[in-house]
Structure formats: structure tokens, C-alpha cells
Amino acid sequence: MAVRNRVIAERVQEAIEHSGLKKQHIAANIGVNYKDFCRWVSGGRPFEIHALVDVSEMLGLPKDHFLKDFLRDCWDAPRDKPQRIKEFLIYTKVEKLNEYTTGMTDLLLESGKQLDILVAAGIDLEKRGLSNDALYFYDMVIDNERNRLAECLALSYYRRFMIVRDWDMDYAFEAATKLGEHVRSLPDDLLFEAYVNITAVFYVLDKWDHLIKYGNEVCGMLEMTKKENARLYAKFMAHLGFAYRKKGLFSEATETEEKCRELGDSQISRWADMNACLTAIEAGQYDKTYELIEFMKKYREDAPNNLDHVLKAFHDQKNYRDMAWVLSLFPKELKCLFEKRDPYHSKKSIRVKCYIAELYFHDNRYTEAMDLLLESLATAKKLRLTNQVNECADIIFKNSKIFTTCVE
């Protein structure tokens, strides 16, 4: 039995005797088993932190009355030390007992060991929906881990990236770049996922050169485990293929589609066929737009991600009639796309709304068009999607004279 256990037990016992309350009454009121409570008070077993705080409050003491001793008890624990430290960190962070969170964190940082406990605490907080609290622990590891190849450091960069990528794309790009420097130190079960999420940021920001360079660097590594990570591999190849198309490298884009078909998965092969339509459309074969629409009608779950491509193809040809036709085909899919708030789908949503606005201007529905554009512009600014900000602004400027005349 640890000496500190006895110190806490004696202090709690003294406080109970001073209060005049019976142990049975206290145990019942804080919702714990009486036998367990007796073991805690006798020093035979370490207190659980939430129960210790409940005892403090029931005895009329400050909730942190015993926490200074309890902190040392967790730190000096002969058994289950990592688990006890993690629970202490999580509880004190959630309850805003920052003095004790900082105290335990400082002990870990001074020791230079077991910083993975901070990562574990952060992951648990994320599961509770407390991402901002989790960031505190990830940032502590990032700022203090001396071994730059440590797995806990890579995990901290990854978890931080997964949180901030939805704030705005400036944060996302910075976090993706930093993660890229440490990504190879991630455990194998997260490595593939991290690569895909990094390329997704480059995709959203239209950073095609970054995407191609990064894709070529890691492609060989991903090839070795593509069978075990088929869906992630398909997403990675889709991002890479899109970058190739935007750079006019159509044969390279076709190669990414062929690699996906080689996986032998029917759904992935279907995605590859749809991407092949996109490659053909980008190369000027606009008749492939109708083939893509047939895919979208048959597999409606894939329609939201392809509406922007179809509308662009018709808009490039000034085919406003078929733009309206496509919108009439997929009202539920449009609604589904517009309801999503992550940057990836927000970018697609903005692009679709821009094409709808162009259609509205063509149909003399000026107020509706301008409302859509202003809404999209606000979203693009909030997420710092520079290209989409410029796209909205260009359409507004191009049609401003027409709109002003109509309003007057």
C-alpha cells in the first residue's frame, strides 16, 4: 500500500469524524458501494477521483480539498499509474480545475517520459465531444516532446490536424503541412488514413501541385498495403486523379482509375468508372456528362459529390436548359449536399450554388441569384476558401450592373 494512500485516507477519516456523519450515509449519498468506500477510507485501495471530490463537497469542504495529495498519490502509484494519471488529467480538465491539470502535466513534462498519457487523455476528451480541451494535451506534447520521431508526437500532430481542419482552411493547411513532417511515425493503422486526410486538404484548397508532389512521394508506400486499405486507397487515388485532371495530365488520371479497378471491388470500380467520365469531360468530351448522369441516377448516394462537375460541364457549354434539368433530377441530393458543413462538402456546395446563380441570372431571377452568391461568399470567407471567395466575387461583379439596373 502506498504511503500517500494512507495520507489521503487519514485526512478523509479525520474530516469525516469532524463532520459527525456516518460512512454509510456518505457512501449512499455519493452513490458508491459501502465496502468500497470503507476500503478507500482505510487506505486499502486508492480513491476514485470523482468520489473523492464528492466526499469533499458533502463534508462542506472545497471540491479540491484533497486533490493536492491525490495528485502525488497518482504520480507515485506502484500500479496502474498511467491509467490513474490519465483519469486525473481528464477529470480536472473537464471540471476546470486547471491548477491540478497543469501540476500533473508539468510532472510528466519534467520527467520527459510517458507523454503518451497526455495523448490518451486528449483522445478520451475528443470522444466526449471536448475537442478544445483535448487540444491542450496535444499542444503540450508538440511543444515538449524531445524525440521528434516519437509516435506520441506524430499522434498529437494528427489529432490536432483532425480538430482544426474544420475551423478554416488556413488552419487546415498549416496543420496538414506540419503533420506531413511527422506522418511516417504514426502507427500503421492510422498511417493510410492520415495520408488520405492530408490530400483531402490539398484538394479542398485546389493545391494541385502540392497534391501531385505529395501523392508521388507516398504512392509507393500505399501500394504495398492497398488491399488491406482498399477504400482509403480509392479515396487517395481519387484526389490524385482530380489533381492530374486539373493540370491537364489526363493519361496520369486514367492510370489512377485503372489502379482502382485492379482492386476488384465493385463499388470502387464504379467510382473509377465515374472518375473516368470526369477525365473525359475535362478533356473536352462533353457527351460523357450524360453517362455520368446515368451513374448518378442509378447510384444516388454518389450524386451529391458529382453535381458540381455536371453543372460545370453544362455551364461551360452555356447549356442552361440541361443545367435546370439536372437540378430537377436531384432535389434530395442537392438538399443533402447543402446540409453538410465540413470544408470538403462546403466547397462543393459553394460551387453548385455559383452555377445555380449563373442559371438564375440567365433566367432573369436576379434577386435569388444574388442571395445565393452572398450566402456562398460568407461561407467561403468563414472557411477561408480563397478560390471560392474569388469565384463568388467574380460572378457578383460580372452581374452587378444587371442586378443594379433591375433593382432600380
Q: Care to give the gist of this entry?
A:
Helices cover 77% and strands 0% of the residues.
Describe this structure in words.
- The chain is an all-alpha fold.
- Among the domains are: 1-79, lambda repressor-like DNA-binding domains (434 Repressor (Amino-terminal Domain)); 319-408, Serine Threonine Protein Phosphatase 5, Tetratricopeptide repeat, CATH 1.25.40.
- It is 77% helix and 0% strand.
- It is built from 23 helices and no strands.
- It has helices at residues 3-19, 23-30, 34-42, 49-58, 67-75, 81-94, 98-111, 116-127, 131-144, 151-164, 169-182, 188-204, 208-224, 230-246, 250-261, 266-282, 288-298, 307-316, 320-329, 331-339, 343-362, 366-383, 386-407.
Map the helices and strands.
Elements: H1 3-19, H2 23-30, H3 34-42, H4 49-58, H5 67-75, H6 81-94, H7 98-111, H8 116-127, H9 131-144, H10 151-164, H11 169-182, H12 188-204, H13 208-224, H14 230-246, H15 250-261, H16 266-282, H17 288-298, H18 307-316, H19 320-329, H20 331-339, H21 343-362, H22 366-383, H23 386-407
Helix pairs in contact: 1-5, 5-7, 6-7, 6-8, 8-9, 8-10, 9-10, 10-11, 11-12, 12-13, 12-14, 13-14, 14-15, 14-16, 15-16, 16-17, 18-19, 18-21, 21-22, 21-23, 22-23
